[in-house]
Amino acid sequence: MRVKPIIWALVLVLLGACVGRPADNATGEEIYLQLCARCHGDNLQGFVGEPLGPGSNSANRPDEFLVVTIEQGRGRMPSFSSSLNDDQLSRLIVYLREVQEG
C-alpha cells in the first residue's frame, strides 16, 4: 500500500506538534535529536526527510538556506519558527555543519 504525500504531510505536522520546544539551553545536537531526527535520521542519513550529513545537498547550501528552510519549512517539512528561538537555531546549524564537515 502506497501512502499519499498529503498523509505524510499530516503525519509530519502532527509529529512536529507533539515534540514541544527544546530547552532554552539545549545543545545543537539535542535540538536536532528532538526536532529533526524523526524525519532526517539519528545520524543525518535521511529517512522521510532528506539526508543532511556529509555529502548531502544541504551540506553545499549556505547557512541562510538552512535558516529559511527550518523557519519556514519546505515541501513536506513543517516550519519550526514557533519551536526555536534565534540562539537555538544558530546552535542547530552549527551542529549540522560540524557533522557535515566530519
Report on the structure:
This protein has a single domain (5-101), classed as Cytochrome Bc1 Complex, Chain D, domain 2, CATH 1.10.760. Helix content is 53%, strand content 0%. It is built from 4 helices and no strands. The protein has helices at residues 5-19, 28-40, 63-72, 86-101. Helix 2 (28-40) crosses helix 4 (86-101).
Keywords:
Cytochrome Bc1 Complex, Chain D, domain 2; 102 residues; mainly alpha; 4 helices; globular; 53% helix; single chain
What is the succession of H and E elements? HHHH
Estimated radius of gyration: 13 Å
Helix content estimate: 40-55%
Into which percentage range does the β-strand content fall?
Answer: under 5%
CATH topology heading: Cytochrome Bc1 Complex, Chain D, domain 2
Q: Give start-end ranges of low-pLDDT stretches.
A: none
